[in-house]
Structures are given as structure tokens and as C-alpha cells.
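Need C-alpha cells for this chain, all 123 residues.
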Amino acid sequence: MIFQYSIGDKPVPRGTGIPWDKGISGAVFQSGEPRITNQVNRDAGHLRQIDRTTGFVTHDMITVPLRRWRREPIGVLNVLNNREGQPRSHGCDGVAVGLRRSATIVGGLEPRMKMNRQTDEEL
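Here are the C-alpha cells for all 123 residues:
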């Protein structure tokens, strides 16, 4: 998966890639199920390469799949480091509902967006 947009104090450079089938984002991409990860440093599935690249430290994250309406996945969205304590499941539900609606719109932009699937060797 290729980062297209990142905001914050230490954003991920556009075009940075991670394998589509690895890490927490890869698991959410494949399952289609949103996920809250508290204490990311204790999750063996977390890919730490992005934190190392940017110098950012991920503590917790909400990961939500983006899919075309009833179709294949087109990406994921991550919300990192809740400022008011650890995220709870009700936060994930609200983000998921909003993003699933947005994904319908994003799916309509498909000709301008392409999800890049790359193998570990290519990254």
C-alpha cells in the first residue's frame, strides 16, 4: 500500500510503501474489519518501519478499511495517538461508519486512484 496523504508533526512522505499483506493495516485491508490497537508497541503485527522512517512514535491507532461499495478493498485509513487516552470501540464504530460512506465517493474516483500491491521484494 502506498501512502497518499499523511498529516501531523511528522508526516509519512507521499509515495512511501508498505506490503499490502503485512502489519495491522494489511490485516485490516484483507479482513475488511476495522480494528483498534491500544499499546501498539506490544502488538507483534505492527510494522515499525514507518515510525523509524519518520521518527514518529505510534502509541495507539484506529485502522479502518476503505472499500468500493460492496467490492474489493482500495486501502485503509489510520488514525493515530488519541489525544484523550486510549481509543475505545465506540470511537472505531463512528470512524468506520463515516469512512465507509466516504469510500463510496472515493470508489467513484477510482480512475484517478490506484492501489499499488507490491511484494516485499519490491519494497
